[in-house]
Fold this protein.
Amino acid sequence: MSAAATRPPDARGRSSAAVRYPCSPERSRDVCIRGLQGVLALAMATLPVLLPCPAHTQETVRERVATMRFPEIRFNRIEPETHTIRGVPVHFFQDSELPLVTFYATFQGGVRNLTREHLAAASALPNLLRTGGTAALPPDSVDDRIELLALAMSFGQGGGSASSRVNALSDYLDEAVRLWASMLRTPRFDSAQVERWRGTEIERVRRGRDDPGTLAFSRFNHIMYGDHPVGWEVSDADLEPADLAPEKLRHVHGAIICPQNMVLGVTGDVTWERASALLDEVLDGWPPCSGALLEDPAPVIRDEPGVFVIHREIEQSVIVMAHPSRLRQGDNPGYYASRVANAILGASGFSSRLVTGVRTREGLAYSASSLWTTSSKNDGLVGAVTRTRPETTLEATRLILATFDSMRAAPPTADEVARTIDETVNGFVFNFRTPLQVISRGMAYRALGLPDDWLERYLRGIQGVTPRAVQEVFRREVDPARMIILLVGDTTRFDGSPTELGPVTVLDDGPPVSPPREPPRSPR
């Protein structure tokens, strides 16, 4: 017996053995079957190497393996408990495998629900909640408490939401949650930390102008969305000291970080009785939302094709192209077909058509990828991005457009569709690797208005996609002639004039764009 197998249990009665076997009481039947299949496959693969044996014996082993039959593996979704405390929804999942607990909070509302004058304050909020101290503790004392309790914390936000979590040893849970709650409820917004964030952001903005990728995506968002929050980027003009004044920070905090916007999740080595008592303490007396959030404005996306050029003397051009897509996220065949179509086009990595054409066959770029964004409320974008040498900028652009055309002209092969579906199905289990994933996905679905069984619906929908459905959704939603194209690079080295792709708008200062080259004349 190994040393690991003879170790005594710890104070909680758990074995400290480092090896986890495929089948154990805490593991589901399906996981056990998969684990044993993996062990068996590995043993069969290595048996001829480890145990030299005659060829006829190896053949007998292979025949026996080929005749083995296993029960069908079925997916059984893990269901967390759902509760409500002081009007706030709570998703709870007890998991005592490790002596750790995670408290997770999401808040609806963000930059796109505020005016432009609050952009800097909203952008700074996650950082300052973590570094700016609390009403009772200065920043260095908060840092000391986090280090002493060995806490893992995160604060973040997207365009329309914010989130935060704390992970702690269950022995220190009460202290950890109280500290986390005070950071969320009563932030100090220490002036030194505010100024530090402002200085860092000014430098980030400056460096962003020098990074061609950052510049390209920032300018393309503005081209497509104009003066809509989706297209906003923090600039020098947004980073004056007045933009981060205490009253603006308090305005943003009171509008977003409040109970009416909140959904909570708890998972780990904790009972519901203990967790609910802590949550009740956290929510007790928390002031209501200020009501300062604005309605989420529907974006007006540019739909007029054209070519935009930014001159930069760099060794790789950045190509970004897209046009609006009306397709929405939801339980409908078109949406599922678009997911398979996007994977075949360029989202599946080296096996995709864009990478096969742009990288493998033509050698124009290291990588190329497609994008097809979908929202349940608003239109999205469909397009592609890549980088290439200045001397092959137009060639790479035309090749991407031709790849779009090929997806419209004929259905993908059955093998392409089957491979994409198999990759999706085989990767499905990774959506449920940890209890925190289960909890956070449920919270996200609630925020997006999706049904609780959305992942199962998604899986069934993907499995029903056919090659013809992929072609139909491409014909309906994608048109290369409508593409808005942005080229960032050394225009003096381009393999032709950008005007060959369409009407050109030059952004920023740079050499004038030359007219299209005349086609070569045939000899008389």
Observations:
- The longest helix spans residues 29-50.
